[in-house]
Every structure is written in structure tokens, then in C-alpha cells.
Amino acid sequence: METFEIGQRVLDLCPNDESYLYNQSISCEKVAKFDEALALVDRYMAIICDKPNPDEDHLQRAVITYAKAGLKAKTIDAFSLLKKHHPYIADVVKGEDNVEAILNA
């Protein structure tokens, strides 16, 4: 819970930093605030989607989070970016239960 609270203060200071958004999304999920985690993933995805080389961890987490939420279109979009920029990681993530189910639905 302490990490979550510190993350909230950091985001107050730097609300559009993709790494802080990513880290706080993890903290939110750990304290059972999945909707907040999902909103943070949406925020950092809006920032990184047009970058020439988006971070593989950020994309991987987006794919898994969107799949867990059952958001097919967002899962596919995030997976496509992951596959384009980090194909090996995409192949690994594709095998995860939620991801595989939503990509094959």
C-alpha cells in the first residue's frame, strides 16, 4: 500500500511520464484497484503508441492487462505493436491463457 501511495504522489508531480504510469498500474493491481490500473495503461499507451521504439515491458503489460479485462480490440492493438517492435516477446506473451483466448476468439 505504501508503494501505491508514493506512486500517486509521483504521478501528481509527473502525470504524463510513461514509466511512472506503468509502475503505478502495477501498484494499483497489487492493491486490487484493477480499474485504476487499466486507466493508467490506457494513459501510457496513448503516449507510447506513436513512438519509434516503445518499451517492451510497457507493451507486454498492456497486452496482458487488456486481455485480462476482456478488451479484445485494445488487446489486438497492443499485441500488434508488441509484435512489430518486439516479435520474440510477442510470441512469449501470446502463449498466456488470457491473451491466447482473446486473440483466438
Low-confidence stretches: none
Structural class label: mainly alpha
- Average pLDDT figure: 94
Radius of gyration: 13 Å
Number of helices: 7
CATH top level?
Mainly Alpha
Number of domains: 1
Shape: globular
Question: Total strand count, please?
Answer: 0
Quaternary structure type:
single chain
CATH fold call: Serine Threonine Protein Phosphatase 5, Tetratricopeptide repeat
CATH architecture descriptor? Alpha Horseshoe
The helix fraction, in percent, is: over 70%
The CATH superfamily title: Tetratricopeptide repeat domain
Strand residue content: under 5%
Secondary-structure element order, N to C: HHHHHHH
Task: Give a written overview of the molecule.
The chain has one domain (2-103): Serine Threonine Protein Phosphatase 5, Tetratricopeptide repeat. The protein contains seven helices and no strands. The protein has helices at residues 2-13, 18-30, 34-48, 56-69, 72-85, 87-94, 97-103. Helix 2 packs antiparallel against helix 3 and helix 3 packs across helix 4. The longest helix has 15 residues, at 34-48. The chain is globular, with a radius of gyration of 13 Å. The model has no long low-confidence stretch (mean pLDDT 94).
